[in-house]
Amino acid sequence: MSLSSMSREDPELDENKNCMFCKRLEKTVLANHWCKSCMEAICEDCKSLHRAIPSLQNHKIVNLSSIKEVNSEIEIEESCLLHVGKILDVFCHNHQKLCCSVCLVKQHKLCKNVGTLEDIAHEIDRDSIQKTALRYIGLEKTVNDILSENLNKVSKLHTRKQEISMVTEEKVQEIKSLLDNAHAMWLKRFEQNHADSVGNIETASEELRRFSTTVHEARIMLQSVLKSGSSKQLFVTNYKLQNQITDHITRLKSLDIWTFSEDYKQNNSDFFSQMSNAKEFEDVVLSRLQSTALERILVDAPDKDDILKRRLTMSQKDWMNVIFKKISQITGFSERVYYGLFIHDTKIILSLTNPPSLKIYDISKATGECIHTDRCQDRPHDLCHSGLSLNEIYVSFENFINHYRIDVAETITFTKLRTIQLKEPMLAISRGPRTAFAANSSKRMICSLDFCVIHSSSYEPSGDVPFVSSSLISDSHCFIKDYTVVAVEQNNKEIFKSTKNTDFRGVSFDLQDNILVCNWSTKLKQFKHDKSESRNIDAADMTKPYNVVLHPAGEKLLVLSYDMKCCVYSVS
Predict the structure, then answer these.
(1) What's residue 1's pLDDT?
(2) Are 351 and 337 in contact (CB under 8 A)?
């Protein structure tokens, strides 16, 4: 059923008094029938035409005079897109698919959890779907609020750009003609940066407008079916709209457009000194900030598997008292494995050296199993998520970082989205909400989200390789320096430092910014973020822990051991 057809579902409307088929041929013919499938009024001749055309023969047609019958429950038969002339009348719970009789025989004959739409319709929870329709109202408002905020951001950037340009122009007028060329080049770079900054916000705004349209149309359709559709149609429509919204949100997550320009700063307007030394004007500094648009949308979006919602639930726990229960273990490595990451609720990825490769393991069973190997030309090092999606990750190859999307289905598919060339070598990498963090054998670096270095400090890793971690909820970063756990905020100011312990290795923040650290001679240690307390953590087979990685939702923990094994623990 199309959105436009829903507006014509009332045969009592004036526009439905005449045959719609004839109206398209610019003829006015009184209608006396209603086609439930076409959702339009038709005349006697067009009713006969339905019988003559094979694709229309299965349409249900009722007498238009039976207003009560038409208005009681509009029953719409959904045609199968794969099999002409077949109607969708079965739902496979195993594959979450709507099926016709041919689909059922060809693709789902071995499925055990299959039900007819008639049976499912009797059990549908209309109140729950009504609540979903109401949530779309809030979601639509949220998107529109974000669009309004984006307009204000653009206005602010325009204003600040004008202010700085005017001040610069006044300074330039005081300098002799030899400065004119430098000023012109500076203005060209500034205009381009401004155009890029505003263009990025406008691109994001256009994507949000499209999403707002999707949500609006979904709400109109769902409310229309709630008003006059059958239970079966309500189930089908709600299912399809849920998928439509989820697919659109997935697309928004995949776009690299959510770092917005916030303000311009001109640190130095001494242009004469700049000309004397650098022979050009110093560029205006642009500050950037990760947009919260997606996070705010996901609060209202009907996405049962959303990481942010699950993280919010897990963050309510007292993390200084959570329990770790082993659910899977992987052994048999021929070398030590230092870096790993969750890419799915039941899949992890590990980076190996010999041969250079990325291996994916299924941890749904007590003994983890390697299900895919992706060979690499260069040696992979640390990994981190690139955003909100579990399956989109960054992998460091020391002098460059590859951005991958890993699709987990019956087969594993690696797609390289882009390569980031690095100005500084990076072995260990992590990513917070607004800044990234990295380290090599001599430096640690606070970076922008595309790994451009903002702050750099000397650093020497404890142990074989460097380990770093970024908070999921703040812009704090932690690492081991001189055998102590150190945490800094995004401007490189130290906010935490533990006592010295020569056995400290890998680190990770939990969901309350407490720090988990591997004490490889014993077990894990946990430091409370306000330094008030700490505790030792003992769990099954947690021997010689060397690195620790938290699932983005906080539901699981990966511990890599020095004795060439790794264990996965549930958090409760």
Answers:
(1) 37
(2) yes
Are the C-beta atoms of 246 and 276 separated by less than 8 Å? no
Which pTM value belongs to this model? Answer: 0.57
Cα–Cα distance, 127 to 114 (Å, whole number): 24
Contacts of 460 (CB under 8 A, 6+ apart): 441, 442, 481, 482
Give mean pLDDT, residues 538-566. Answer: 93
Residues 494 and 361 in one domain: yes
Identity (one letter) of the amino acid at 257?
A: I
| Residue 117 forms part of a structural domain | no
Residue at a domain's end among 287, 304, 321: 304
Residue 102 included in any domain: no
CATH number, position 318:
2.130.10.10
* Domain shared by 57 and 145, yes or no: no
pLDDT band at 8 (very low <50, low <70, confident <90, very high): very low
Distance (Å) of CA 70 to CA 31, 117, 167, 228: 14, 21, 71, 9
**Pairwise pLDDT comparison (180 vs 515), residue with the higher score:** 515
Q: Are residues 291 and 332 in the same domain?
A: no
Give helix then strand counts, H and E, for the chain: 12, 32
Predicted local distance difference test score (pLDDT) of residue 175: 64
Sign, CA dihedral 160-164-167-170, equals negative
CA distance 492 to 147: 33
Exposure string for 54-78, b = 16+ CB within 10 A, e = fewer: eebeebebeebeeeeebeeebebeb
Q: E strands, 331-385, where?
A: 340-344, 347-352, 357-362, 369-375, 383-385
Alpha-carbon distance of 568 to 363, in angstroms, equals 8
Name beta bridge partners: 566: 330, 560
Q: Looking up tokens 């992706």, which residue turns up? A: 374
DSSP state, residue 54: G
- Surface-to-core class of residue 16, CB atoms within 10 Å of its CB (0-12 exposed, 13-18 middle, 19+ buried): buried
Task: Point out the domain boundary residue: 269, 304, 339.
Answer: 304
Q: Same structural domain for residues 63 and 204? A: no
Q: What is the pLDDT of residue 186?
A: 82
Assess contact for 468 and 498: CB atoms under 8 A: no
Same domain for 149 and 58, yes or no, is: no
Contact 426, 440 (CB under 8 A): yes
Vertex 303 angle, CA 125 and 305, to 5°: 110
Q: pLDDT value at position 124?
A: 83
Q: How many domains does the chain have?
A: 3
Q: Pick from 551, 526, 529, 511: which is nearest to 312 by CA?
A: 511
* Same structural domain, 506 and 453: yes
Residue 73 bridge partners (DSSP): none
Asked whether residue 50 falls in the same domain as residue 189, the answer is: no
User: 79 with 101: CB under 8 angstroms?
Assistant: no
